Each structure stands twice: as C-alpha cells, then as structure tokens.
Amino acid sequence: MRLRRGIAIAVVAGGGAVTTMLVGLVTNAVSDESRWPGWLGWLQEHAWFSFVVLGVTMAGLTALLAGLSETRPPTPPGRPEDGAGPPGAAQVLRSLPRDTAAFTDRAAELERLVGSVRASQERGQGLPVHVIDGMPGVGKTAFAVHAGHLLSERFPDGQLFVNLNGHTPGRTPVQAGEALASLLTAAGVPTQQIPVGDDVGAVTEARAAMWRSRLADKKALLILDNAASYRQLEPLLPGGSGCLVLVTSRKRLVANEEVVMSVEALPPDHAVDLFVRLSGRPSDALCRDVVDELVRLCGCLPLGVSLLAARLRHHPSWNAEDLRGRLVAARDRLGELRAGERAVTATFDLSYRDLAPERQRFFRQLGFFPGTDLDPHVGAALGEVSVVMARRHLEALYDDHLIDEQPGSRYRLHDLLRAYARGLTAEGEGMDHVQAVQRVCTYYLAALAVANGHIVRSGAAVPPVPDDASRVETPVLESRADALSWLETERANVLACVRRANGLALYDLVVRLAAAMAPFLRQAGPWDQAVGLHRTAAEGARHTGDQRAQGDALAELGVVRRFTASYPQAIEALNDAVTAYDAVDDRRGKADALNQLGIVWYLTTDNEDAARAQTEALALYRELGDRLGQANALADLGMTHRQMSRFDAAVEAQSEALAIYRELGDRYGEANSLRDLGVAHCLMGAYDLAARHHQEAFDIYLELDDRVHQAYALNELGVVRRLTGDIEGARTAHNQAMTHFTELGERFGRATSVRHLGVVERVTGDATQAIRLLEEALDAYRELGSRGGEAASLSELGVARGIVGERDGAIEAFQRGLEILRDLGDRCGEAEVLNHWGTLLFTSDEPPAARRHFDQALMVARDIRCPLEEARALEGIGRCDWTIDGPGHGVDSLRAAVTVYRRLGVSASVDDIERLLV
Q: Per the confidence metrics, is the pTM higher than 0.90?
C-alpha cells in the first residue's frame, strides 16, 4: 500500500506545543462498536500527541509486528466493546492433541528422532526440520504427537499443533497466511495486530516475519500436520535455531537441511500386540494365526488395527474367526479400491456396519460438516438430536475409533473417515447435503445471537435471532469472556460454513451469517478474512435482491477496509452502502454508513467532507433517537473540528459526546472523550483542566486493565507536566509509558515516548542526548511509514541541532518538517516550527529574517487560537525589535507575551522576559 496523507500531528516539544494538539484526536477515532479494532489501522495513518502513525505500508506492518514481545497485549487502542479483547491474554503455547493410549512401539523411529534432537541441542546447533511421511492411516500424526509429548520438557516455551488440511476431503489445504494467523493468535498476538491486506504474498511475508520474531530465542516445538507441499509449510518455519518442527505428510517433501523419517506400516508382531491390547481379550484366548491374518488384511495400519480390535472388544460373543469372516466380506465388496485404501477402508466398513442404525445416520451426517472439528452442539444440529444424545453418539464413535478427540471436548474425523462418511450418503436413508448445511448454519446463527448479546456495546444494533432458533440448543455463554472464547474457537468453522453455503447457493444464510459474525470480526479480525466474508455477503444479497442486506454487507466491508487503511476502497463500499440504504429508506443504516464515511474522510484529511458527513449522520441519529450513534457522530465531529483548528467547536461536540457516553455507561467512550478533551484544553492553555481530564482517563483505563491506553494517557500527562515546568514528572511519565509500550511490543507508542523524552533532554540542557533520542524516534516513524511522526521529530531535531551549532542541519530539518505539516494541514504544528525556526535565525544574528518567521507564526497561532504559540511568536517579535531598533523597542510585544504566558502558567518564560525588561 502506498503511503497516505495523514492528519496534523501535535507534538508538545519542551519549548513547543506541536504534538499536544492531537493527543486526544485519537480518543474518538473509533467511536462505535465497529471502530475500536480499527485503532491499529487508524494509528498507522495518523499522528496525534501520543500516537503518531501515518500511511500504512506492508513493510511498516512487518516492522511493527515483528517487534511484538512475548507478553500478549490487551485490547489495542480504540473503542473496544467492554474493554476485553479476544481471549488469550494469558495464553500458554500448549496445543498438542492428547497422546493416544494405543501408541505401539516405533522404538527405532523414536530413538532416531529423540537422538537427533538431543545431539543438536547438546552441540548447540540449529534443529533441522523433521519430516514424517507415510501412507494414510499409517500413524504419522500419532507418532508426531507422541514424540511431541516425549520431547515437551526440552521445549519449555511451548508446543503447538496445526492441521494444514493437505489431504482433507471437502476442504482445501490451509494457506500459509491462514496458518500463520492461527499460530500468531495461539502465541498471544491479538488478531487485530496480525498483518492483513489484499496482497496475499506480502501479507504472508509480513506474518511470517512476525512469527519468526515471536519465536526468536525461544525453545518451542511445532507440529505441522497433514502438509500438502513444502511451499505450504515453509513460511511457517521459525527462524531461530532453538525450535523443533515436526511435519507430517503423505508426500515425500524435499528441502534442504531436513531429516526425513518415513513411517511404515507396523511390523506384523507389533500390529498383533496392538490388536491384542485394544481388543480387551487375553492373548491366550485369541488364535494367533487368525489375528495374524486380521492385521495383514488391514495392512498392519494402526488405524485399521485399532478399528478391528474395537469391533472385537464391543462384541464379547464374537471370536477372532467371526471378525475375520466379516472383514473378508467387506474387502470383497470394496475390491475396486486401490490396495492401500482397500486395506484400511474395509475396516471402516466393518466398524460402520456394526453401528446401530441411528448411530450410522449420525456418523454419515458428520461427513457433511464444513468445518474441521466440532462439539456436541454442532453434532446435535447435524444429527437433528439433542445435545445429550449427540454427546453420547460422539463418545461412542470415539470409543469405536471412528472419530478423534481434540482438546476441549471436541471431535474430528480422520481424513479417510471423512471421505468414507461422505461416500455413504447414497446408501440407506442418506441425508441431503443442503439440509445438513442449513441445519448447522441455523445453529451457528442462534449461537452467534447469544454471543453477540455479550460483546456488542450498549445501545448498538444486534443481528436478530433466527426465527427457528427456539428449536436449537445453544452453548451456555454467561459472560463476555465466554462469548469471545467460543467465537475464537468457532471462527474457522463458521467461515467454512459460509463458504459451503455460498457454494450451495444458500445466499440468505450467507448474508445472515456474515452479519452475525461482523461484530466479532470487527474487533478480532483477521480483517482480510472479514473482507472476504463481506464481499461474499454483498454478492449473495445481490443474488437475492435484498438491498438492505446488501447495504449492511457493503457497510461492513467499508469498515474493515478502513481498518486496513484501504481508504479508496472503503469510500467506494460505503458510498454504495448509502445508495442501497436510500433505496429502501433505511435511515439507521444510512446514518451508520455516513458516520463511517466521515471517519475515512477525516483520516485522509478531507475535513470539509468529513464534517458534512458527520453532521448529516448526527441529524439522522437525532431523528431516530439513537443515543450511541449521536455520541459517536459528535465525538468524530469534534475530532474533525480540532483537526481544522476549531478548538471551541471541538470542545463543544466532545463534551456533548462525553455526557451521552456517561449516560449510557460506556466507560471506554467516556475515557476516550476525556482524553480528547484533555488535548483540546492543553492546546487552549487550560493545563490544569487538561491534566485532570488525562488523569481521569488514565484511571478508567486502569480500571479496565488496558495497559495500552494507560501508556497513551501517561504520555499525555507527561506533556502537560513538561509545559507547566514539572520536568522530572514529565520524564517519569514518559519512561513509564515507554516501559509499557516496550513490553507490549507497541512500536508506535514507544517511538512517541522516545520522542517526548528527547524533548525533555533538550529542555534540561542535554542537546546531544536529545539528538540521539529524536533520531531514534525519527528512524522508527520513517520505518513505520508515519509522516506525522516524522514531522514531529524533525521539528524537535531542528531545535536540538541548532543548540549544538549545526545550523544547516537544523534548517534542513525545519524545511522538511514544515512541508509535511502543511501537507497534513497541521496549522498548530506549522506555527511551532515557524517559531523554532525564528529562534534559530535570531540566535544566528539574523533578526530581520527571524522576525518574518515570528510574524507568520503569530498570524497562524491567532487564526487557530493556539495561545502557547501566540506567546512564543510575540516574545520572538519583541526580542527582534529590541535587537534591530535598540533597547526599549518591542516592549509592547514582550509584555503581551508575558500576559499570555502568565495565563498559561509558563513561569520560566515570564521570568526570562521580565529580566530583559528590567
């Protein structure tokens, strides 16, 4: 993505006030339930007082996200629903499936694997990738999982398992980018911080960079199960030498520096031992010759042996000869299959035919589930049975080795068994594929309605409950945490259901599921998945001719496009949404779309369009009596006014928004509005009021356990303290903020803290240290694509370089900073740079040129009513006149400056001028 224009930045430098202006602009950048996750994308475009970030590039995302620390950050900045982000703030990297009790021998393979790992670790060498290949049913996954459990103590930083669906019937192989998103989420990265975009290759590269950074210097074990190709898994490989990767595949994958371990069928005697152990019969009660033949007939494959033994265990009246007769008959019936498939599929058939009719039907229906793993509630929907009965069926099928148990009381069909179940639909009663998908989609709609009741903000619209939801049993979700946990678990399954429903032309279900998933995907992402979902929904609505639903899908698409900083696409989608809403006279939908359009235009500094859109949205919300909509529109309108340097109008709008947020009990809205008001009051010289607002906001963030926002508030408090002469208090606040940002891996916020600390060093007289810090911040902002941050750092660098005598370097910094600020429309920043530049010229014995700069700064500062820059300009003009025309001249300007400084409480500047006047 190209760099985009950002918005005015405000950097309150030690001697200057530029970044103060925009500290709280961020406060309401995202002001409804759709917006708080967009905070990260918003940050990547904008630069305010504490968060200076503009113009997202994928390289910038990579750089940002690659630095995330091991501690999972809480909800990113913005307006979360209730202050809780997606679950997992304290996740531990432990996701290996349960070790199977049926694991038999493989002593030689295990010894080779463990020995290879031990030798590499003892020599301090990087661990090679170990590829475990073999035919279906041979036990590759069981071997990898068993080895993972054996080696777990050697990898204390975590053990992760990912199914890549390389050969799963009915499912396409997992793309590397999707797998990386899952791994990053499991590793504690909030999904909103995972790179997204339209360029699949660039997104995958960015996610891979973050993943490698996440595991740098860690000792973790990663099992990549069921890989289709080396290309699929290569981006998933950690970069550090301390991680072990085990890959299972039916193919012989070739790559450098890997250990290939082929898993063959069990030796006959081991297969016999496994059969005897699982059959529950004493070995002397079984005819050895018959058991030898049984294991040979199923190819000595562990999966087949387990199924056969389970048949015998569940039929006490059978003997081994009875089982052999049935297996031979099944093999004859399946003779058209290839030898390897026939060997194991015959055992499936034998196990299936031994099930009761109702369990056979339940098993067949599992083959139609579009997702990967399921729980009893999904099973109940598929099988049209109660959850209690579904649980019984699933447990029985697990006992019969026809399904695998996953962590969290979930179940999954082996790929071969899924194919087998799908192939049974033509037999017996069968179950219509479309009806099965309809039932499971209806279940998810009902369950999503329950979850949305916990995560959608007070006063926001909630997707309706389906009419037939009363016939569906939904999981018990008693809290926001329960809802988020359930949504995280089911996200991939719901999206798979949407794809299947779309393929079956069930467009109404596609549209409804997309709407029901929208609140969660807004805050949790990944947003590239959300883009695909809403595109599909919009197309589905076109098929059905439902313009209201089409407007909803387009509006959601526009919101997510905004989160990813794809502004032209966001504007296009939102304008189309407004058109669709107008066609059906949906005023609420139109108001929401206009509100979102206003935010996008605000982010691209199209201020007049932004103000017009928010004003129209506000009028519609007032007609509808929508209080949350009114608060959101007012908050966004206030930010737009401040961006246009209309500070009084900004305070008025933001104060009204604050009152409504308090009326609704919306604590995040309250805190963000308080912080935004604090910035405005700081710019207007009301430092005591600004400090009080920032402290109140900080206390709410503390109550909500939001460390990210706490750090922002600390930076803002630090700026106010510095401007009022409390330099050590400012240093302490910025250091605390930097510690939070560093621990959370928030590079935007950290760069801002470093910049503020550079200003503190400059004010206290250490210009050399100031230059070092400011150059560090400048490099970070440029790397992140933040033009606003770049301008703020250049402004302060110009001052510091002037102090150490680097006049040309200082002027170059001022020139570049001024160009950016004027392009961004930051008039307060422009006045500050002009004052800094005037000061440099004055100290360089160029008072006439200095006075011209101070005159320009005074004109801008008075035009936007920025008192601190007005006082600085007046002081500069007075000193220039004193020097040019002689002592006694410029007194009026100096006394006017003293008056403003005293009102602001800037006593140090007052003392300097009074000494001159005396």
A: no
